[in-house]
Amino acid sequence: MTFTSQGPLLLAGAGKMGGAILEGLLARGLDPRTVIVQDPDPAPAVGDLLADNGIDVLPFIDELTQPPGVILIAVKPQIMEAVLPGLAKLAGPHTLVVSIAAGRRLASFEKFMPGAAVVRAMPNTPAAIRRGITVAVANKRVTPVQRAFADDLLSAVGEVLWVDDEALLDPVTAVSGSGPAYVFLLAECLAEAGRAAGLDAKLAAQLARATVAGSGALLEQSDLSAEQLRKNVTSPGGTTAAALEVLGGVDGLQKLMTAAVAAATKRGRDLAK
Ligand SMILES: NC(=O)C1=CN([C@@H]2O[C@H](COP(=O)(O)OP(=O)(O)OC[C@H]3O[C@@H](n4cnc5c(N)ncnc54)[C@H](O)[C@@H]3O)[C@@H](O)[C@H]2O)C=CC1
Ligand SMILES: O=C(O)[C@@H]1CCC=N1
């Protein structure tokens, strides 16, 4: 990937996600001299990454000698209106805008940057170990070359899928964007349940962590469906069946998860307003 030939990469928002993507890009060989970062208060871990790579961070950038090849927008959706006018001034006619903000529509970027090529993407936090999954959608201004470029950029932190219908990004956000939190909550609850059942807290946490991680790895590496893997654990009349009955089986957890994903989808739609 050669950001230099198209102008530098301007990262707006060096927090958890912006930092993870930048780290993935640097690990893949991006020249740090082609990176510019705007953030008034970068996450401490990202600050270290930037310092180690000699990348300056500015709280606000009002001028650049060369328009960025890409502006990667990784600020919270709630402050987007405050940030976009400044970024719009820095963009050139060939600048590609890539936003990872939840709920922020392509149209809201087009409003501040009329005529700009914009990609809206939804990654997730396993990006921090380059095991994320991102779903992206492009506006009509994005050329095939720019789309391939965005794909290359986002794939620095994991798999990238593209959709044509932007409306899908809200349920995508609810499933894979927010999804790691549901899995971590499961690990937390499992650990606490183990403690309540008599294990010491450290052992319970270790067992829950290894079980969630090992099950995830098995799910990834196996050819079997999640349903079949679940059935393989569940001996008729055994311990797992007793637990699943309390969870309400597929019906109980399914109802709860469907409601949770619907709430996250709705929140994504509300953030667009
Ligand atoms: N955390 C997650 O799981 C995911 C987050 N996202 C999206 O990524 C975006 C960033 O989220 P996080 O990294 O979690 O948040 P974060 O709070 O870790 O990072 C946001 C960063 O923006 C910086 N910032 C504030 N004002 C700024 C300004 N005027 N100019 C430049 N930077 C500014 C903050 O100092 C902070 O470092 C959000 O839009 C979120 O919807 C997308 C997928 C997953
Ligand atoms: O909770 C949020 O709004 C962000 C978007 C997806 C994950 N975190």
Automatic annotation (TrEMBL):
GO biological process, one term: L-proline biosynthetic process
Positions of the Pyrroline-5-carboxylate reductase catalytic N-terminal domain: 13-103
Binding residue positions for NADP(+): 74-77
A GO term, aspect molecular function: pyrroline-5-carboxylate reductase activity
Entry's Gene Ontology cellular component terms: cytoplasm
Keywords per UniProt: Amino-acid biosynthesis, Cytoplasm, NADP, Oxidoreductase, Proline biosynthesis
Pfam families cross-referenced by the UniProt entry: F420_oxidored (PF03807), P5CR_dimer (PF14748)
Biological or metabolic pathway of the protein: Amino-acid biosynthesis; L-proline biosynthesis; L-proline from L-glutamate 5-semialdehyde: step 1/1
Localization, UniProt: Cytoplasm
Annotated catalysed reactions: L-proline + NAD(+) = (S)-1-pyrroline-5-carboxylate + NADH + 2 H(+); L-proline + NADP(+) = (S)-1-pyrroline-5-carboxylate + NADPH + 2 H(+)
Superkingdom classification of source: Bacteria
Keyword check for Amino-acid biosynthesis: yes
Entry EC no(s): 1.5.1.2
HAMAP family named in the record: P5C_reductase
UniProt record similarity statement: Belongs to the pyrroline-5-carboxylate reductase family.
UniProt function note: Catalyzes the reduction of 1-pyrroline-5-carboxylate (PCA) to L-proline.
UniProt-recorded name of the protein: Pyrroline-5-carboxylate reductase
Lineage: Bacteria, Pseudomonadati, Pseudomonadota, Alphaproteobacteria, Hyphomicrobiales
Gene: proC
